[in-house]
Amino acid sequence: MANNFDDADRVETVRIRGLSGEATGGNFYKLVGGSETFKKLAAKFYEGVASDPLLKPMYPEEDLGPAQLRLQLFLEQYWGGPATYQELRGHPRLRMRHSDFKINPAARERWLLHMRAAVDSLSLPQTQEAELWGYLDRAATAMLNTFED
Ligand code: HEM
After folding, report:
1. pLDDT digits (tens, 9 = 90+) for 120-144
2. Span 50-94, pLDDT tens digits
3. Ligand 1 touching residue 70 (CB < 6 A)
4. What percent of the chain has pLDDT over 90?
5. What predicted TM-score, i.e. pTM, was given to this entire model?
6. What's the pLDDT at 23?
7. Measured from the CA of 61, which atom of ligand 1 is nearest?
8. What DSSP assignment string belongs to the chain?
9. Signal peptide location in the record (predicted)?
C-alpha cells in the first residue's frame, strides 16, 4: 500500500493496515472484489453527481468521465490496490486538490448521499460495508473547507 498520503489519509492508512493483514488473507482491495468493485462504486457515484444541482456545477469539466476514473483509481490505491493513481496524478494531497472548491456542510451531505447509494449498490458483507463507509464519511468531513453558504 502506498504510504505517502496527506496527514488525514495517513491516520486512516494506519488504522486500515490491521484489516489488510494476514487475518483477512489479503488486503481490503482484494477482499471486496478488486478493480471491478471500485469501478462500479465510482460509476454509480458519478451517476448521482451528474444530476445534482449543487455538485455538478462545481466540476471544471463538462465530461465527468475523467473525474470518475480519478476517484476510482484513488480509492483502489488507498485500499491496497495498484498505485496507478499516483503514477498518473502524483501525490494525492486531496485536501489541497479540493481547496478551489467550496466544500461546506451542504456539499458534504450531497457528496455522501450519492456515495451512500453507490456503496449500497455493491451489496458488500456488513463488516466490509462498514469499513468502507466509515472511511468515506470521515474523508468527506476532512474535505470541508468552509461553513459559508
Ligand atoms: C465532501 C465533498 C466533496 C466534494 C464536493 C468534492 C468535489 C470534487 C471536485 C469538484 C473535484 C474535481 C473533479 C476532478 O477534476 O477530478 C474532485 C476531485 C477529486 N475528489 Fe472530491 N469532493 C469531495 C470529497 C471527496 C472525498 C471524500 C474523496 C476521497 C475519499 C474525494 C476524492 C477525489 C479525488 C481522488 C479527486 C481527483 C483529484 C485529482 O487527481 O485531481 N473527494 N472532488
Report:
1. 999 999 999 999 999 999 999 999 9
2. 999 999 999 999 999 999 999 999 999 999 999 999 999 999 999
3. yes
4. 83
5. 0.87
6. 42
7. 15
8. ------HHHHHHHHHHHHHHSGGGTS-HHHHTTTHHHHHHHHHHHHHHHHT-TTTGGG-SSS--HHHHHHHHHHHHHHTTS--HHHHHH-S--HHHHTTTS---HHHHHHHHHHHHHHHHTT---HHHHHHHHHHHHHHHHHT------
9. none
Q: Under a CB-based contact definition with an 8 Å cutoff, are residues 111 and 55 in contact?
A: yes
- 101 C-beta closer than 6 A to ligand 1: yes
pLDDT at 20 over 90: no
Kindly list the structural domains of the chain, giving each domain's residue range(s) and its CATH number in brackets, ordered by start.
7-142 (1.10.490.10)
Instruction: Output the nine-digit C-alpha cell for 102.
Output: 467550496
How many angstroms separate the alpha carbon of residue 53 from the centre of ligand 1?
A: 16
Quote the CA–CA distance of 57 and 61 in Å, as a whole number. Answer: 9
128: cell is 466490509
